[in-house]
Every structure is written in C-alpha cells, then in structure tokens.
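Researcher: Sequence recovery benchmark, item below. Answer with residues only.
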C-alpha cells in the first residue's frame, strides 16, 4: 500500500490501474483509503478476488472486509478478467466484481492463474484484453 500511495501521489480521473491477483487486492484497498472527492478513471483486475482464499500469506489483507460500496465512490469503471480453470481464484470472484462493482466480466478459457512457468502454466505473455479494456474504460 505504501509503495502504491507513494507512486500515485495525487489520484485523478486520468489514472487507470491494472492489477493481477494480489495486486487487485492492493488496488481495492488503496481505493478504500481515498478522500471523499478523490476519484480514479478505472481498473482492470486480472485473477482478482474479494476475500481470503485460505492462504496464510494473504490473511493480513483481510483483517476487515473489503468495502466495495466505498470503492465504488472512488472508481466506478472496472473490468474483471478471469480464467475458467484458475487453481487459486474461483470464478465466483469475477461474478462478485460483476455484481458488486458493476465490472465487465471477461472469462478466458484454460488460462490458469495467468502466471506462466512459475505456476507450471504456459506463459501468459500476452493478454490483449487488458489493453482493450483500458481503452474502453478511458472512452
């Protein structure tokens, strides 16, 4: 969070986020902390999730529930990209983004966690839907 806050400095509606997995939670937690009038342009969340996935390393991100209503005050343009066979993030999280954040949901076939060799998956070196989504959100 500190790194993200230090990098962004002053959020505005020209700012668009792209996050993968835990990066999505970081973005959502950041959006929760914005001041009343602060808004960003949008966010693309790849393999994102909204609550604890029962991985010990992630529990510190979920000491309190994510406040999706508060997040919507600061950002109301989202795209969620998920895989139908992600071994870590169930597809239900894409549906949560769709229903609670009004995100456009893109479901990719057999892309795993979009991780590549680190997860014994075929490397995900291109995901054109990310660029297409940012262009769509900005227009």
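Model:
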């Amino acid at each position: 969070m500190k790194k993200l806050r230090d990098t962004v400095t002053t959020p505005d509606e020209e700012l668009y986020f792209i996050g993968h997995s835990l990066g999505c939670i970081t973005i959502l937690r950041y959006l929760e902390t914005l001041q009343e009038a602060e808004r960003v342009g949008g966010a693309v969340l790849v393999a994102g999730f909204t609550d604890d996935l029962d991985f010990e390393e992630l529990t510190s991100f979920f000491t309190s529930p994510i406040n999706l209503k508060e997040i919507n005050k600061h950002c109301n343009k989202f795209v969620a990209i998920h895989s139908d066979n992600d071994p870590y993030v169930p597809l239900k999280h894409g549906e949560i983004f769709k229903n609670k954040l009004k995100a456009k949901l893109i479901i990719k076939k057999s892309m795993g966690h979009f991780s590549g060799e680190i997860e014994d998956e075929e490397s995900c070196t291109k995901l054109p839907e990310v660029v297409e989504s940012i262009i769509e959100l900005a227009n």
